[in-house]
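I have a small job for you when you get a moment. Can you supply me with one protein entry, sequence and fold together? It will help me judge whether the discrete encoding reads sensibly. Write everything out right here, beneath this request:
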Amino acid sequence: MLSSDGYLDSPLFGEREKAVIRWAELVTWNKARYDDEAFKQLARHFDSAEIVELTKVAAFRGLMNRFMDSLHIELEGPELQARGGRAVASKEDLHAYLEKLVDLV
């Protein structure tokens, strides 16, 4: 399992994937507008339309998380909640998921 910013040093992710993760974090924290370097890094790998799409996905997921949390609606089923409510993904599964996300753009 990677720590919150462990992806930056991880050999599991290439520079393109790391740029996407960083951007998604900044969008989630509502700090993307203040990090010109993160935008430049993203722009090295994606065109303007792709950046808009990535931003839309990250913002929508953040919106849904806040919406569901505010209304006390659980995102995960009872089995996961019984384990403490945290999903656990292997490094391989996480990498495969990010590859699919990046390929969608």
